[in-house]
């Protein structure tokens, strides 16, 4: 985020960035809003951020569709989150992490599976609108691509790593 935004209080920064997500989801045809505030907490195993909607998560029709977390260090804001195209529906998954609170995904909320490009374009336009900025496309370096592949393999695509968190 540009410097003026990094000085905002935590909840205001969440609201600003959530505004980009809300505007992007609106472009896809969804009316999202911030969840009524409860402090964030994890499900029974601690593994599933979709076990409950927390303050600053997004809901569509009362169901959680997007969760995020924020880290601030030395004037830098990093916000990451999950806006799933589809949630796991297998009983064994939910036995492991606990039942979801009212949660949905993009495919269910839209009644169709959107393409990656459609979602990317809508979210980029939403963030540009909310931040009053012009976004410029870029490319990852070879080093960034290698690191992303390693993280995907060793962590994010690894059930053992995800379920112990």
Task: Describe the protein.
This protein is an alpha+beta fold. The protein has 2 domains: 3-134, Bira Bifunctional Protein, Domain 2 (BirA Bifunctional Protein, domain 2), CATH 3.30.930; 138-165, no CATH class. It contains 7 helices and 4 strands; from the N terminus they run ααββββααααα. It has helices at 3-6, 10-28, 91-97, 106-110, 116-131, 142-156, 159-164; strands at 32-34, 58-60, 63-73, 76-82. α2 packs across α5. The longest helix has 19 residues, at 10-28. The radius of gyration is 16 Å and the shape is globular. The model is unreliable at 43-47 (pLDDT under 50).
Strand content: 5-15%
CATH level 1 name of the largest domain: Alpha Beta
Second CATH tier, the architecture of the largest domain: 2-Layer Sandwich
Number of domains: 2
Determine the mean pLDDT: 83
Count of discrete alpha- or pi-helical segments spanning 4 or more residues:
7
Query: Nearest-angstrom radius of gyration?
Result: 16 Å
What composes the largest sheet? Answer: 4 strands, antiparallel
Structural class: alpha+beta
Helix content: 40-55%
CATH topology category name of the largest domain: BirA Bifunctional Protein, domain 2
Global outline: globular
Series of H and E elements: HHEEEEHHHHH
| Distance separating the two termini | 28 Å
Contiguous uncertain segments of 5+ residues: 43-47
How many β strands by DSSP?
4
């Amino acid at each position: 985020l540009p410097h003026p935004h990094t000085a905002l209080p935590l909840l205001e920064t969440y609201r600003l960035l959530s505004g980009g997500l809300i505007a992007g989801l609106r472009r896809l045809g969804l009316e999202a809003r911030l969840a009524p505030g409860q402090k964030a907490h994890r499900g029974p195993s601690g593994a599933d951020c979709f076990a409950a909607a927390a303050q600053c998560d997004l809901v569509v029709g009362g169901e959680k569709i997007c969760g995020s977390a924020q880290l601030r260090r030395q004037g830098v804001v990093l916000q990451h989150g999950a806006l799933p195209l589809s949630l796991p529906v297998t009983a064994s998954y939910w036995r492991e992490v606990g039942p979801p609170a009212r949660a949905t995904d993009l495919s269910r909320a839209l009644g169709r599976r959107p393409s990656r490009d459609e979602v990317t374009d809508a979210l980029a336009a939403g963030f540009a609108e909310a931040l009053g900025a012009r976004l410029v496309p870029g490319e990852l370096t070879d080093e960034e691509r290698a690191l992303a592949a390693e993280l995907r393999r060793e962590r994010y695509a690894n059930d053992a790593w995800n379920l112990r968190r």
